[in-house]
Amino acid sequence: MIVCIYWLLSSELLEIFLYNLATMDEASSSMQCLVCTEAINATRFGMEVCRACASFFKRTKQAGKQYSCRQGHRKCSTAKDEKLVCRGCRFDKCVAVGMEYDGPMRVRRKSMPILKRLLFNCRQDTSSEIYRIFIDESFEFFNNVYPALSEIAEKEREQIFKEYLAKFCIIENYQRSMRLWGSVTKIQTFSVTTCSDLYWKPNEEEEAVFADVDSVVSYTKNYIEDMNGIYLPIFTRCAWTEREYYAFMALVMFEIDCDLSEDAQFILEMYRRETLEDLQLHYRNDLGLLDFSSRLGNLMTANHAIQECMSLFKVRVRGLYSMFDMRMAENSIRDFYL
């Protein structure tokens, strides 16, 4: 809750929020803060000051900040009941009452451009951790949406999830790319951390850093073009509603390329029927359609296309492992996709 508030408040309002938060437990004391007159029950920095003012003074010294006066005359009130306390006058009052800070100072480093920070942090260990988190949270989502699958064996449930998540990602890629870029033929956004530019060409510096970069670019471009050839025609033709899009993401799960128990097949069929029933209600009640056979047909065609894309996806992952000789120690990632 506090973290969310930090993000939403301006810097000045944040100071007031911390100010009030830090002094809530000191209201019953007879001593007063020399800076803001708030009741206190302990000294800080050897002075009779409250926790909020001590923290404010320390942060200001560590950051090397200099605040100007809100009114310009350096005589603003620093009392706690002021609506917006002037930070310049508050710091001056801290110095005037004798506050000193001789603790460690923060080393200020030159800011690195955001794109370089992104590239710097996109290491293999970082990427692996991102994918692990993604898989764990997706599995939690999967179990919440399809709770009846908890009745089957864990290994079988995980197999269904593995098949489903790859299809889910393919569909999300096209939906996200179209929403962000208005097209999927130049840039595809597989996730918030993975984006492919089909027309990107490495410069000399990048060619020197990344071995066989031309092969990687060509391989990725061919893969995306093959995927577009399979899925893009039906994707651009459908123009789904939001409800149809959700239904489609459910329907792709029911085509599983592995042997399943009767219990698992029964549960999947139950969810498939529920999805189709809800979809028909959407067509009749929300869209006012009497004949929706063509829209259902488009969904089934798109479903078949995604199954083909899934096969292509598995081939690509195997190719990447061969091309980059990825560490086999990453068993969780390797086993999940292969």
TrEMBL record:
It comes from Pristionchus pacificus. GO terms for molecular function: DNA-binding transcription factor activity; sequence-specific DNA binding; zinc ion binding. PANTHER family: HIGH ZINC ACTIVATED NUCLEAR RECEPTOR PROTEIN, NUCLEAR HORMONE RECEPTOR FAMILY MEMBER NHR-86-RELATED. GO terms for cellular component: nucleus. SUPFAM superfamilies: Glucocorticoid receptor-like (DNA-binding domain) (SSF57716), Nuclear receptor ligand-binding domain (SSF48508). This is Nuclear receptor.
